[in-house]
Amino acid sequence: MIDNLPRETLAEMYRRMRRIRIFEDKVEVMHRNGEIPGSCHTSQGQEGEIVGACMALRTDDYMIGNHRSHGHPIGKGAALGGLMAELLGRVTGVCRGKGGSMHLSDFSVGSLGETSIVGSGIPVAAGAALGAKMQGLDRVSLCFFGDGASNEGTFHEGINLAAIWHAPAIFLCENNGYGVSTPLSQTTLVANIADRAVSYGIPGVVVDGQDVLAVHSVVAAAVRRARAGEGPTLIEAKTYRYLEHAVNMGREFNYRTEEEINRWRERDPIALFHARLTTESGFAESELLAIDRQAEEELSDAIAFAKASPYPEPSEAFTDVYA
User: Fold this and answer.
1) Catalytic residues
2) Residue 3: pLDDT band by 50, 70, 90 thresholds?
3) What's the burial of 102, exposed, middle or buried (CB within 10 Å: 0-12/13-18/19+)?
4) pTM flag (> 0.85)
């Protein structure tokens, strides 16, 4: 098997990547049709780094995502029904219909939540890791954030604290090259975000985000280091989002060329993994097609479940609040 991973693990990697892709493709259509309220930020093209990282964790390990939010809980193993219901604002959603697209939490798989505030998950991940350490729990905390978040104050504060506490955390920068429509080269002079790790006295690793197995290997090493009490790691996955910053942004910014987009599409993480499964691991096309069909059925069931679910009662507005 590839990278000495069991066949079942490889199949599950492919399954989760396909779940993310078909979920995001459908969300884009539903949002354009006015079925999903609020903003939606999809992650087509980034499935490799999401699934590679999440599958290096245990179910009880913590994961914190960001505003590009749907792929992370799916990558961590969350069921699609509760996620779709949340996007549609239904009471059966993972946050009872009150969070929407950018605020998804599913504690059953260790997904602690995501917010629309750029960089806000980094100190949360540091705190979750510290909490696990103080309680003597053998858990790690994985935090996804974008290249834009690496210039927020929370990046320095959160990673610095995690470093001096030797907290069991993995900070994974999803460097897709752009903060909305601004190229990273216009906001950051270092060649790699991971180069900043040296200032915190922790390892910094750059990995090809389109290669799910390479990401899995790097994150698995960081997890072993964290569980051994050796502290956090900063990982930078070079990746790309195929669509705009958000669905229905309302205008075309023309900040990317078709040549650039097509070049990255030629390195589609799902297609690359599909090819390796068939050529290096003996998977038959029929097996992978069966996984595709299963994912599509799961999505259809999730949509039916969400649409059949009621909206929250007005009184729900006064639950789960501080005052």
Assistant:
1) 241, 245, 255
2) confident
3) buried
4) yes
